[in-house]
Specification:
single chain; 341 residues; D-Maltodextrin-Binding Protein, domain 2; 8-stranded mixed sheet; 8 helices; 15 strands; 22% strand; binds 6-O-phosphono-alpha-D-fructofuranose
């Protein structure tokens, strides 16, 4: 059993910062502010069953989806926690159609924050693990004024940090700043995130696949063949694989990150670009999984290389253990990607 040195998220972030002589400490402050937002959201998520915060608000988000009260709370908390730190020039959220400007009374910084405040929220009432996903870029628009949509629609390759918080049996903060993937478990007794998963590495090959098989009829023929191949018996390739699908992207990918696995949300005949969002779901998860030694593509192209066309655009995603993603790409070799408008 490897002895993990006792370390807090705050100390880990600053230790990482000191490895870069020209670091200004701004990214460290950003990550620290995000961990604060995570603690506050975790508090509400973990008592949601007690407080009358469950149930629909009756409102709809920008995608016409019913919004749960916790979605709004998490979104508001992220914005309130992040808008005055002086490190951001602009933010964007799954819950807001347009970009979110920094209030004029606060200092404008050089970073950009994109986030899905509460991914998997349709599972809230069932007490299934849900999560916050975040992605950090440097601004590319000129000057020191408010950030722009151009700042919020950069290629995933340009991310300088990304992470997620999973609110489950415990609250875990997992992040990468380009130097490996590290996980921290919240100790609620004294409100600190403690290093619990140093340098996470995803197994190169797995025995787990995650996909909503209810959409089987609408899949490309190559994907149907791949899933049937996974279900055949062949001990030499570890088949049949186990099917594990929670319906909460953060929870499914987190399990696969630790145990190995491939998570798939493909395009299909009803949804030509899939369901999941490129900028604040797929790009950050792709950065994390690649940093852990895995692979993430849309079936044809590396997720991080996709040139975004719009803030809320969707993309098919195949993400996880490298050998598994490479193999599904082979089954999809004759699949024609639908151009994102
Ligand atoms: P489906 C949750 O609503 C979510 O955005 C992701 O967290 C999850 O992976 C996916 O949608 C589940 O979608 O269509 O399988 O219910």
């Amino acid at each position: 059993m490897v002895q993990i040195k006792f370390n807090t998220l705050a100390r880990h972030i600053y230790e990482e910062e000191r490895k870069y002589p020209d670091a200004t400490g701004e990214l460290s402050d950003l990550l620290h502010d995000l961990s604060l937002a995570a603690k506050v959201i975790s508090l509400e998520v973990n008592k949601a069953g007690l407080v009358d915060i469950l149930g629909f608000t009756g409102d709809q988000n920008v995608h016409g989806e019913q919004v749960k009260k916790l979605d709004i709370y998490a979104n508001d908390m992220m914005i309130k926690a992040m808008d005055h730190g002086g490190h951001l020039c602009v933010m964007a959220s799954e819950e807001d159609e347009d970009i979110i400007h920094i209030p004029p009374e606060f200092h404008i910084g050089k970073y950009v924050l994109l986030f899905d405040p509460l991914d998997g929220s349709s599972n809230i009432d069932a007490n299934v693990s849900i999560g916050t996903i975040f992605s950090i870029y440097r601004r590319v628009s000129p000057g020191n004024g408010p950030g722009t949509m151009e700042d919020c629609t950069q290629q995933g390759l340009k991310q300088i940090a990304a992470g997620y918080v999973i609110y489950g049996s415990s609250t875990l903060f997992v992040y990468t700043a380009g130097n490996g993937v590290h996980g921290f478990t919240l100790d609620p007794s004294f409100g600190e995130f403690i290093l619990s998963h140093p340098s996470i590495k995803i197994p190169k090959k797995s025995k787990i696949y995650s996909i909503n098989e209810g959409n089987y009829l609408y899949w490309h023929s190559g994907l149907k063949k791949y899933i049937k191949w996974l279900q055949e018996e062949d001990k030499s390739t570890g088949r049949p694989y186990s099917s594990r699908y929670i319906g909460s992207m953060v929870a499914d990918i987190h399990r696969n990150l630790l145990y190995g696995g491939i998570f798939m949300y493909p395009a299909d005949s009803r949804n030509p670009n899939g369901k999941l969002r490129l900028m604040y779901e797929c790009n950050p998860m792709a950065f994390i999984v690649e940093q852990a030694g895995g692979r993430a593509s849309n079936g044809k192209q590396r997720i991080l290389e996709i040139q975004p066309k719009s803030l809320h655009q969707r993309t098919p995603i195949f993400i996880g253990s490298e050998e598994d993603v490479l193999l599904v790409e082979k089954f999809l070799s004759d699949y024609e990607m639908i151009e994102v408008k």
